[in-house]
Every structure is written in C-alpha cells, then in structure tokens.
Amino acid sequence: MPCPKVMVDPAVPDEIAELLRGHRELLLGMRTGWAPVRKRRYDPTLGIVASAAAGVAALLAVAAGFGFFLEERYTSFVVVMTVAALLVVGVLLRPRTDAEVARRRAQELDVYENALLYEGRFVLAEDLDEGSRALLARARAAVEAVMESRVNAEGLLDGVRNAVMLPEQEWEIARLLAKLSALRREHEEVVAEGLTPEVAAVAEPLGEALASSEQAVLARVEALERYAGHVAEAERAFRARRQIERFGAKLPRYEELLAESGADSSAVPELGRLTEDADRLEETLRDSVTSAHEAFRHLNG
Hints:
The chain is mostly helical. The protein has a two-stranded antiparallel sheet.
C-alpha cells in the first residue's frame, strides 16, 4: 500500500480536512512560495449595465439607419448600420468573467487561507524521506486492515475507540516522521559538506538521536501491525466460523441425499465433524478477539 499523499490531523474539521486532501498540488505549490492572485471582486452589475447601454445604442442606430434608408441617404444608412452591427457584436463577444475561473480562484484562496490557518496540522508525502514514507505506508496498511475487517464491523472489537484512536495514532506517526525527515535532510546536507573533527564529535550524537527517534516511531508502527495481526487472526476465525455455520445448516440435506442415494454412509461421521470444527473455531475466535483487545490496550498505553 502506498504512502498517503496528504495526512491531516483528525482534530481538523472534516470539511477542511477534505479540502486540504483534495488540493495537494496547491499545498505543494505553497511549499515553494506559491500564493493565490488576489484581484478586486468583479461586480456583475457593471457588465449588465454596459451590455444594456450597448444594446440600446444599437437599437437607436438601427432606427436611425432605417430613417436614412427611407430618405435614400444610402451612405449614411450603411455607416449607421455598420456601427449598429459592431455594437451588437461587441455585446455578444464582450469578455465576461468566467464563472469557472472565478470559482477556481475562490477555491484556491480558500485552500491557501486554511493551509495557513492549519499549518503544522497536515503532512504531505513529499515532506517525508523514503524511509519515512515506507513506515507511514505500513501504518496506513495496518489501520485500514483493522477498520475494514468484518470483526470490527460486527462489533467484536471496540469500533468506536478504533475509529477515534487509530487515526490519531496514524497522524502522530506521520507528524513525527515529517519532523524526523526534515531534521535528517538538514543533518545529511551538513555532513555532506565534510566535517572537521570538532564538528564530527557533535554530529555523531545528533545522528544517534535521529536513529533513536526513528526506532521509537518504528515501535509505534510495529505496535499497530501487531494489533492488525491479532485482528487478522480473529477475522480468519470469524470467516471460517460463518462458513461452517452455512455448511452446518445444510447438513440434514447432505445426510438425506446420502441415505436416498445409498452412498457410502462412512461419509456421515465426517460431516458430523462440522459441529466440532465450529466449536473449535468459536474458541479460536474468542481467543483471537481477546488477544486483539489486549494489543489494543497496549497500543493505547
């Protein structure tokens, strides 16, 4: 699973979070200094008045033109009718404010202002180095595996706490990885210049601090993955139990067919084992769900 393109703090209002996620290119542009063009608001009334005035002038010119025609002043008629035609064409072809362009500019401004307001509350994939993107992708895969599981949907897990805590965990991982990536890039840039022995003595523990921080974040990701692993085991047992139940419901029909057909009755005991298998799967499911709850409490701690 790829790294999320835009991670937003779950505490950010949903509509703002969706706005930011849907305009990644604008957020990337802001990283390089882009800002929306702020133009004076266009008043559509001015355009309507101008069009109406041009229309009235065209009508008057046409009326005058017909007067010249009746008076057989054909040169004046041609001139006036040409002017009228130009006025009509001018009204039809007059540049209008494109509604779509206006809407896009308003949206760009909305994204820009909210990105400034919620600076530090979202992370772009481009903010992360390669190693950090890989870790965030693992965290996202674990969270989605839990949230999309049937055992979660059926309420065998704590669905409400999952829906709140798992996004918070994922966001915290993304936030820490963004800080780690930024510091690691700066550290590597300085080291690449070549260090004197004095500076190297300082740089080494700083590098160790970065590595230690990465290990701490890795531990968070692995805790998520352990939880997802327990959920996956519960999911397997849940699915198998449901399949056994479906077969068990049809067991009398299988037995009836065997009896009527005179087939080998030795198959009947094998079919009877379905009940035993269902019992074992029920126990496995309970154990798996219990393990998942334990992992969840550890993750939350």
